[in-house]
């Protein structure tokens, strides 16, 4: 077989693999490979994980999986009763966890002045922080031309600037420890454009810009960054989305 035929054959195989496997998978090939052959979740046992946006959806269910695997958790969001509910569910799922292993820390991520006291209270209580999960955020349904600039500002504040401010604070600590892991809930809308969510897409693209730059600046450091890019999910995430107008939810 000559070179061109080999390249042609490999192209066909590559295309077939990428056409066939997605029918059986709930994620891309790279993630599926790591899920099957990578480190098991149980290797996270005893890690201290701070989840921002832990009261519902992805954050809530991530808390359950991490609790089952013996992580210590700090659950943050605005709604205390919801966080207490998530905490109780976590404790039910792993009888080895004690109540003091799961901390409810009420926080509005937009309240930047609260970041440092919140972070300090975690270090005082748990002695360390291994993983920060930036999962808070709100989506949008609006026509591009109707979005008021005040909505763009509000959304960038909640979905971009607030998690970035918190990450900068935590980054300094991670650098000092020469260890740490940022997990960021992005979206499929952080990779390709999704209609009727212009600001939301821009928010997610911006997050990729910020964290990819951090990734380059920390090549010589022991810092991991994971951008999670889920597609459509069964959560109540769209129950309260931004629209084009301020003070309106769809
Ligand atoms: C890198 O970080 C991991 C935890 O994220 C830690 O287990 C490991 O010891 C660190 N490596 C170095 C060289 O500091």
From TrEMBL:
Membrane-spanning residues where?
6-27
Q: Name one Pfam family in it.
A: adh_short
* Keyword set includes Transmembrane helix: yes
Gene3D superfamilies from the xrefs?
A: NAD(P)-binding Rossmann-like Domain
Sorted keywords for this record are:
Membrane, Transmembrane, Transmembrane helix
Please indicate which superkingdom the organism of origin belongs to: Eukaryota
Please report which protein family the annotation says this sequence is part of. Belongs to the short-chain dehydrogenases/reductases (SDR) family.
Annotated PANTHER family: DEHYDROGENASE/REDUCTASE SDR FAMILY MEMBER 7-RELATED, DEHYDROGENASE_REDUCTASE SDR FAMILY MEMBER 7
The protein's name in its UniProt record: Dehydrogenase/reductase SDR family member 7
Q: Which organism is it from?
A: Melipona quadrifasciata
């Amino acid at each position: 077989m000559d070179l061109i035929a080999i390249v042609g054959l490999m192209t066909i195989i590559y295309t077939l693999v990428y056409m066939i496997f997605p029918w059986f998978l709930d994620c891309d090939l790279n993630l599926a490979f790591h899920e099957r052959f990578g480190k098991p979740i149980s290797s996270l046992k005893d890690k201290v994980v701070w989840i921002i946006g832990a009261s519902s959806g992805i954050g809530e269910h991530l808390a359950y999986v991490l609790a089952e695997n013996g992580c210590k958790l700090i659950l943050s969001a605005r709604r205390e009763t919801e966080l207490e509910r998530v905490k109780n569910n976590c404790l039910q799922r792993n009888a080895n966890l004690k109540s003091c292993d799961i901390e409810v820390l009420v926080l509005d991520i937009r309240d930047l002045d609260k970041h440092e006291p919140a972070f300090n209270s975690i270090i005082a209580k748990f002695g360390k922080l291994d993983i920060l999960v930036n999962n808070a955020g709100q989506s949008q349904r609006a026509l591009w031309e109707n979005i008021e600039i005040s909505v763009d500002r509000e959304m960038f504040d909640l979905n971009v600037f607030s998690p970035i401010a918190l990450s900068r604070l935590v980054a300094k600590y991670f650098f000092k420890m020469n260890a740490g892991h940022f997990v960021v809930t992005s979206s499929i809308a952080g990779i390709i454009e999704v209609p009727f969510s212009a600001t939301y897409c821009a928010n997610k693209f911006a997050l990729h810009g910020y964290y990819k730059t951090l990734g380059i600046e920390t090549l010589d450091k022991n810092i991991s960054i994971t951008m999670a890019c889920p597609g459509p999910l069964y959560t109540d995430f769209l129950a309260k989305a931004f629209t084009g107008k301020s003070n309106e939810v769809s």
